[in-house]
Fold these 2 entries.
Entry 1:
Amino acid sequence: MIEIEKVTAGYGDGPDILHGINLNADGGEIVTILGPNGCGKSTLLKTIAGFVKPRSGRVLLNDTDLTPVPANEKVRYHRMGFVPQSDNIFRTLTVAENIAMGARFLPKAERAAAVQRQFKAYSTLADKANRKASALSGGERQLLSLARALVSNPTVLLLDEPSAGLSPAMVHEVFEAIADIRDRTGMCIVMVEQNAFEALGVADRAYVLALGQVALEGRAKELLADPAMRHLYLGGEPEATVTTT
Ligand SMILES: Nc1ncnc2c1ncn2[C@@H]1O[C@H](COP(=O)(O)OP(=O)(O)OP(=O)(O)O)[C@@H](O)[C@H]1O
Ligand SMILES: [Mg+2]
């Protein structure tokens, strides 16, 4: 569904942040992008979404070259949903108004029903429909930003750290919600994460970035068992004890 071919990208006239990235993601799978702070995960997601233009390489959706298409058109005409890493809700609007913002590109007659579908899926949000978004907990805000992206019925969902700042129990709940979206809708989900091991627990495949390049990639289950992953994320296996006599 999504194919990233040899993408190089950066900001303004600054240096390249991404160096020839290849990535693909299909419908019905969660692909997670992992890696240390500053390695280019968000930049890669923003490049797929169209907020950052590649300096070279291509971004394809269902074999159509969307490299030059800006983010707003990707949402509107190519059914891409994007949840940014931060500032992802309108704090002064109510929960219902936030979700309705995501429905603004739908035909007018369909908007109300689309918002109701999200309330049906997320009762926590329905219970607080008329509250200001600023009054929600961190986890509820993540659910709200998810619902706002889902209301337009995307086929591709791009999530930048949906579990950021959540307690372990809430991390689990948000990941369950994301897995449920995959299973119910067959959507293609690309998710940047810091919680590497939890993300691998729910994802189908993963890419580990380092310094703007793909350092490791594979099936999530295999990466979970890969000593190189443990080395990257847990500071390595204990050294074998060498005994000299
Ligand atoms: N808007 C911007 N303008 C200029 N440089 C930027 C911009 N956004 C990010 N960068 C730089 O690009 C590099 C990669 O940043 P990016 O946000 O993609 O990393 P990340 O892997 O998502 O990190 P984190 O885990 O902290 O979210 C960093 O060196 C950062 O300083
Ligand atoms: Mg980031």
Entry 2:
Amino acid sequence: MPPTLPRRPLGRTGLDVSALALGTMQFGWTADEATSFAVLDRFLEAGGNLIDTADVYSRWAEGNPGGVSEAIIGRWMADRGARDGVVLATKVRGRMWDGPDGEGLSRAHIVRACEDSLRRLRTDRIDLYQTHAWDEGTPLDETLAALDDLVRSGKVRFIGASNIPAWHLVEALWRSDAGHWARYDTLQPNFSLIHRKEHEVDLAAVCARFEIAILPYSPLAGGFLTGKYRPDAAPPTGARSARLRERYLNDRGIAVLDTLDAVAAAHGATCAQVALAWLLAQPNVAAPIIGANTVAQLDELLPGAGLTLGADELAGLGAASAGW
Ligand SMILES: NC(=O)c1ccc[n+]([C@@H]2O[C@H](COP(=O)([O-])OP(=O)(O)OC[C@H]3O[C@@H](n4cnc5c(N)ncnc54)[C@H](OP(=O)(O)O)[C@@H]3O)[C@@H](O)[C@H]2O)c1
């Protein structure tokens, strides 16, 4: 049996979510439907409830129309009768159809994209609707008013942001306040032991000040922090392998892996589990969003949520990864 995931409050929303969220970018891309169902089953069995997807997954892959991950989750929830046990998060912003409204955060795009997501997910509500990235081309008030209408209609419960500069997040909070609209209650940043600056400079302080729950994506830097990328090891296969080696397999990346190795050995744990435990110890982090291509990968990650690191270990990991 996999370990039971602890629950944590999702910021101010009143929702309790599992300390690890299941990312589903892999579904229909690098994991087929049967494997995706098995990963979802295991996550639920382990006490997981927060599932993150996006309408655009995985439109970037050759021959993939997008919407595939949402459709797989929709079929799984219907087949298992699982909808009420899930906190369902999806995203809007990416290009989903041709024409001027086919992407972005205009009212026209958001309203149609939300209906499409609800249909693919086979549900009447999205628990957390996130803007996938900011949209410089649309007035912020138009975006926030459209999201607020979805909240008032009951199609969306809470809204969150992703890939947004700190100044724009503050501006959005201020405009929501002025318009009496729903406000961003979560932030989904690229944040891991080897990708810290983007979040820690400014965004982290905004989240602390305004009680925004943080859902870090790519918490293992796409797999690098599992420790399977090493100078003397055969390159892992996988869609992102070459890019990860090029980006992280250098002196600084190896220093982070060395520190992870030492902490992991002290706990009888793995590098991936320690990397997740470090994130869970950071302020305002509710749940790192993990990705798994197999049930075996997921099983290795789950114990990370129950691992408590000492202050000296957190400091050592922080020092090894400073400046990233
Ligand atoms: N908001 C955004 O812009 C954004 C961007 C990216 C992702 N996300 C979300 O965040 C989720 C997670 O992102 P991510 O996939 O980059 O997360 P990640 O946890 O950093 O990396 C996951 C990858 O690591 C490898 N892996 C996982 N467990 C492993 C294990 N036990 N042993 C060895 N390798 C293992 C797998 O890749 P291989 O099998 O290929 O090695 C897996 O696909 C996505 O599914 C998505 O929901 C959001």
